[in-house]
Amino acid sequence: MSEAETLLVQLRCLKALHETPGFRAAAGRMFISDRKLRRELTALEEATGVHLVDRTDVATVTPDGERILTSGIIERLEAHQESIHEAVAELKTLLTAQPDPADVT
Predict the structure, then answer these.
(1) What residues pair up with 54 in beta bridges, in sequence order?
(2) Residue 71 lies in a domain
(3) Phi, psi at residue 5, to the nearest 5°?
(4) Residue 53's beta-bridge partner residues?
(5) Which uninterrupted H or E stretch holds 26?
(6) Domain that holds residue 34
């Protein structure tokens, strides 16, 4: 599996966790074990250097994770697999950009 394909799997895991809070429920949605889901999410956090999952009683996505999910990057990666390298670079830029103070509530 290429780096880009691995990233897309990891982002899909993040999306599943957002849509179905809790590792077990999100893993079931992805048809993978919760251990595999945890590994994918940890690898995504390590690769980006950004805390994306709140591991409290029921695991949820952090605000930085939500920024990724609402950015449309996942959908673009899925729709444009041939230009995946450009989208990965944009994702890295998104994660290193400071949020606009007007967006913080």
Answers:
(1) 60
(2) yes
(3) -65, -40
(4) 61
(5) helix 23-30
(6) 3-96
Helix ranges, 1-105 (H)? 3-19, 23-30, 34-48, 63-70, 73-79, 84-96
The pair of structure tokens assigned to 34 is: 């919760």
Token pair of 59, please? 């695991």
pLDDT tens-digit profile of 42-80? Answer: 999 999 999 999 998 899 999 999 999 999 888 887 776
Query: End-to-end CA distance of the chain, in Å?
Result: 40
Residue 103, domain member (yes or no): no
* CATH label of the domain that carries residue 23: 1.10.10.10
At 32, the pLDDT band (50, 70, 90 cuts) reads: very high
User: Is residue 39 in some structural domain?
Assistant: yes
Q: Tally the residues of the chain.
A: 105
Q: How many domains does the chain have?
A: 1
CA 76 to chain centre: 13
Distance CA(40)–CA(36), nearest Å, equals 6
